[in-house]
Every structure is written in C-alpha cells, then in structure tokens.
Write a structure and sequence with these properties.
Layout (H helix, E strand, L loop, with lengths): L4 E4 L6 H8 L3 E4 L5 H7 L5 E4 L7 H6 L5 E4 L9 H6 L3 E4 L5 H17 L1 H9 L17 E5 L3 H12 L3 E5 L5 H6 L3 E2 L2 H7 L2 E4 L13 H5 L5 E5 L8 H10 L2 E6 L18 E3 L8 H21 L15 H22 L6 E8 L6 H13 L11 H7 L3 E7 L7 E9 L2 E10 L3 E7 L2 E5 L4 E8 L4 H11 L4 E8 L5 E8 L5 H9 L3 E8 L1
Parallel strand pairs: 1-2, 1-3, 3-4, 4-5, 6-7, 6-9, 7-8, 9-10, 10-11, 11-12, 13-14
Antiparallel strand pairs: 13-15, 15-16, 16-17, 17-18, 19-21, 19-22, 20-21
Helix pairs in contact: 1-12, 5-7, 13-14, 14-15
This protein binds nicotinamide-adenine-dinucleotide (NAD) and 3-phosphoglyceric acid (3PG).
Length: about 525
C-alpha cells in the first residue's frame, strides 16, 4: 500500500514530522512557499499541515487533487476556505486547546505591560535616559476587565485576571448564565462592557458578527482611560479609529498581537503613545508549539491511516478506536445509500436512516454521512463523506437518523428510505459476521445479496421460464453471471431478481432485457 503523503508548509515543531513518519506517512517540509509554488506542488499530497502563514484558497484546493485533510496546528482557521474544502471533500481540522494557555498568558502579559508601560520604559532606559519621572503606571488590582469572547482562551484569561484581583465582566452571546457563574464572570451586554471596563481584551474568532466589533462608534463608547488588548484576530478593531483615540488620550493604551493585514509592516498605530505590539506571537511558546505539532500530526495520521476523525470543522468526529468498528457499517451504509440513489427516480427530497439492533448503539453521524455519500453519487461522482452532507443541504434534502430500541430478526440492521412521488421506498442491510455488508431487503422484498461490482436489478412477473430467458440473453452477449438472487412477496405476483455480472452491461442489452416477456423494470447498478 502506498504511504499517505503529507506537506508541512509552515514553520512547525519537528515533533510533527516525527509523528507523521512514525505513523506511516511520507512527509515533506517546505516553508515560505509563494501561493503559486504551493499550487504547483499541492497535487502530490494527501495531507497539508499548516499554521497561520499558509492561506488555503479555493484555487489551492482546486489544484489539490489528492488532498484528503488540512490540519491547522493551532486554533484559527480563517486562513482556510472551509466551504471550498468541504465542497472538495477535504476534512479541515484544528487543535482547539493546544495553545490556549499560552495565548491567555500573552494577553495577561499585554495587560501588565500596558499598565506599567514596560516596553517603552525598557527602551528608554537602555537608551541611557533613566526616565524615572516619565512613567506613572496603574494597578490592575480592583480594576474591571472586560472580556469580549469568553470561550477557551477568554475563560483562562478570566481565571488569571481573578488571581490578579481584577473584577471580570464578559460579553459573549453564547455564554450561558451557568457557565458565567462557573468561571466567575459577570455576563453583560456590549454597551455595559464598553462603559464599565478599565481594560478590554478580545477573545472571539473573526466572523461577520465580530468583524470591527470595536468600531469607531463602539470605541467612542469606552470609558476614558481604557486600555485595550487584542490577542485574537486582526479585523476585530478599527485600527485607524484606535490610533486617533490613542493620540487624543481617550484610550490610555493598546496592545495588539494581531493586525487586520499581516505581516503588518506599517500601521496608523505604529508610534502612537502607549501602543505596544507583537508580531502574532500569541501561540509562540515552546510548550504550545510542541502541543499543537504533536496533536495535529496525530489527528491527521489518524485520519489518513485509520479513518479516525477528531476536531474536524466540517465533519462529525469518529475516534480512532471507533473507526474500525464503524468501518463495515459505513461500507454497508454507503452501499445502501448508493442502491437507493440508483433505483429511486424523480425529485427526492427526504431520506431517512433507521438503525436497529447493534447498529442502534453506534455513533450515527458517520453512518448518516456514509449513506449520503452513496446516495449523492447519483448527482456527482466526486462525493465523499465530507462533502455529501453539504451537497445534500444545497439540494434541500431533508435527512433524518432514527434509532430503534426494538429487536428485529437481524442482530443489526440499517434501513434507508427515500420519499418518492410513488411513496416511500426503502432498502435494508445487515452485517454477516462482524464485517460483511449484505443487502436483506429491497423495496419491501426480502432478498439477500452482497452489493458489489456490476449488477442488474430486474422486476418481473413471477412466472415459469423467465430465468431461462434472462440467462440466455446475457449468455448471447457473452456476459458472465457471478451471483444470482431471487425474491418475491408472494407466488405468482411480482418477483425481484438481482444478479452480479463480471463486466458492465451495455445499454443495448438492458434495452433487450426490458423487452423480455414478463419484465417490468431492468436497471443496471454499479458499486
Ligand atoms: N494570537 C494568537 O496567536 C492566537 C492564538 C490562539 C488563538 N487565537 C485566536 O483567539 C480567538 C479565541 O480563541 P478560543 O480558543 O478562545 O476560541 P473559542 O471558540 O473557544 O472562543 C471564542 C468565543 O467567542 C465567542 N463569540 C463568538 N461570536 C461572538 C460575538 N459576536 N461576540 C462575542 N463573543 C463571541 C464564542 O461564543 C466563544 O465563546 C480565536 O480567534 C483564535 O483564532 C489567537
Ligand atoms: O489561531 C491560532 O492558533 C493562533 O493565531 C496562532 O497562530 P500561529 O500558529 O500562526 O502562531
């Protein structure tokens, strides 16, 4: 088996390359590439490991014909076009906790540096000025810290600030009152935070809602003498307005680790009084970089080698332990989805997946993903578990996953039903042994078959002589029958025949099969 090939395109702790190699991946490290250089080589790789310096655009993804996974050694994924990755079936994962403590500590360091103007005092002292009377700081004890965003990093900042005896208030629409109590912060609205905070620190992602959250208008509502820290994302603050308020003295200090445009080589903020900045160093500690490198390499290898999925932003999680147990179910689910997608006609707007027996106790999301991957292939060849749910949503397909507690005749069963203009149509399957997917029912008719390779589905009148006729037709065209499965609801009614053949059946032969006496329907299938 060929080894999965991974490209590390940003500066990353060497533990990442070590883990990839140990886990059976080939790895190349190429940092500092231009977008054109990346585009030219990305087609070779199954995995791309990045930090924030590589921007993964739709053009890069379009050129990444083998790519299965993008791993961000860090938190922010605003440098990855996730919709484009999803549409191309590429999993995007990050390491949501590996650098949180480090970044929270950077925010606290910025608060302290602003309170005592340490960078400027240091620079002037080392310049030989000994400017003792030029600096008068403020204590943080008893001051109010306003958190905008109280997620992982915001919560750690809150805990550290409480240790410094600060009063912490937080604006975060998704913070529940219970969690606010748990982390010891007072939940407030944005207006209150702006009016009350002596220090403001930002810890939200950059989204349409948070972009420019500290706009000129909102900055004007802050308390005179406020000090502002941003170790989250550039674009959260109107930098020009902040520069003006620093110049006017309304804002007593600002510390930015991140800028709207990076690298920030020039800015209206540079040179303003009490302005401090660092070049996106929030996550840059030895500990955090080891954490995120190990974690991203483990996660990406889990996916590339074993099919395990964790911390994906565009796919449900599937642990490396669960993956082997779920793999045969996913194979069955994909085949059933594909079968129903090939057989049912018309505008299909609803699909339901029912799980019974042992299947009811499993993680349903990967099974649903696999059914959709099989089913959506009726619309596009390049569908997989990652992009199928997105394509299904785009087409307005209503998807439901139902678990039944009841015990059926099979120890485990998956049923896939689509709503058609003629009513519901369902197929069901089980596992023989622990890992052999088998069809057991097709549109209400019990029939046992492995769904493999090229097959032919026929509905015919249940009358003598038919099997001979179809056998003769296929034989005349040199088509070898591999397996042959029959089922019917009752004698003399409608019968179902499912047979496998060694090669695709030409359209002309299908036409002749449809014309055979007693045949109501003949549909070629491929798995
Ligand atoms: N400077 C760095 O090097 C560095 C390092 C790590 C993380 N970060 C950035 O820090 C930010 C926070 O990371 P995290 O791990 O705490 O993320 P998180 O997802 O745990 O927390 C983000 C919080 O923001 C809140 N939020 C979302 N929309 C909001 C809105 N409109 N108003 C107020 N709050 C809102 C969410 O509810 C959530 O609680 C991210 O942008 C991340 O990329 C920067
Ligand atoms: O979102 C993050 O994890 C930080 O912005 C860190 O970015 P970096 O990995 O480029 O330092």
């Amino acid at each position: 088996m060929t080894k999965p090939k991974v490209l590390i395109s940003d500066k990353m702790d060497p533990n990442a390359a070590r883990i990839f190699t140990e886990r059976g991946c080939e790895v190349d490290v190429k940092t500092g590439m231009t977008p054109e250089e990346l585009k030219a080589c990305i087609g070779e790789y199954d995995g791309l490991a990045i930090r924030s310096s590589t921007t993964v655009t739709p053009e890069i993804i379009a050129a990444a014909t083998k790519l299965k996974v993008i791993g961000r050694a860090g938190i922010g994924v605003d440098n990855v076009d996730i919709p484009a990755a999803s549409a191309h079936g590429v999993v995007v994962m990050n390491t949501p906790f590996g650098n949180s403590i480090t970044t929270a500590e950077h925010a606290i360091a910025m608060i302290m540096a602003l309170a005592r103007q340490i960078p400027e005092a240091n620079a002037r002292t080392q310049a030989g000025e000994w400017p003792k009377s030029a600096f008068m700081g403020v204590e943080v004890t008893g001051k109010t810290l306003g958190l905008i965003g109280a997620g992982n990093i915001g919560s750690i900042v809150a805990a550290r600030a409480q240790g410094l005896r600060m009063k912490v208030i937080a604006y975060d629409p998704f913070l529940t009152p219970d969690h606010a109590v748990e982390i010891g912060v007072e939940k407030v609205d944005l207006e209150t935070l702006l009016a009350r905070a002596d220090f403001i620190t930002l810890h939200t992602p950059l989204t349409d809602e948070t972009r420019n959250i500290l706009s000129a208008e909102n900055l004007a509502k802050t308390k005179k003498g406020v000090r502002i820290v941003n170790c989250a994302r550039g674009g959260l603050i109107d930098e020009a307005a902040l520069a003006q308020l620093l110049a006017s003295g309304h804002v007593a200090g600002a510390a930015l680790d991140v800028f709207a445009t990076e690298p920030a080589k020039e800015s209206p903020l540079f040179g303003q009084p009490n302005f401090i900045c660092t070049p996106h160093l929030g996550a840059s500690t030895t500990e955090a970089q080891v954490n995120v490198a190990l974690q991203v390499a483990e996660q990406m290898s889990d996916y590339l080698v074993d099919g395990g999925v964790s911390n994906a932003l565009n796919m449900p999680s599937l642990s490396a332990e669960e993956a082997p147990k779920l793999r045969p179910y996913m194979a069955l689910a994909e085949k059933l989805g594909s079968l129903v997608g090939q057989l049912a006609h018309g505008n299909l707007t609803k699909i339901s997946i029912e799980r019974e027996g042992a299947a009811a106790g499993l993680n349903g999301k990967p099974i649903t993903g696999a059914v959709l991957a099989g089913f959506m292939r009726r619309y596009s060849e390049s569908v997989n578990m990652v992009n199928a749910p997105y394509l299904a949503k785009e087409r307005g397909l209503e998807v439901s996953d139902v678990r039944h507690e009841r015990e059926g005749i099979y120890q485990t069963l998956l049923r896939v039903t689509v709503a058609t203009e003629q009513g519901d149509r369902s197929v069901a399957g089980t596992l023989f042994g622990t890992d052999s997917p088998r069809l057991v029912e097709i549109f209400g008719v019990g029939i046992e078959a492995a769904l493999e390779g090229h097959m032919l589905y026929i509905v015919n009148e249940d009358a003598p002589g038919f099997i001979g006729r179809i056998g003769t037709l296929l034989g005349e065209h040199d088509i070898n029958i591999g397996t042959f499965h029959l089922g019917r609801r009752e004698a003399g009614g409608e019968a179902t025949l499912l047979l496998s053949v060694d090669a695709p059946i030409p359209a002309e032969v299908i036409k002749q099969a449809c014309a055979l006496e007693g045949v109501k329907l003949a549909i070629p299938l491929a798995f």
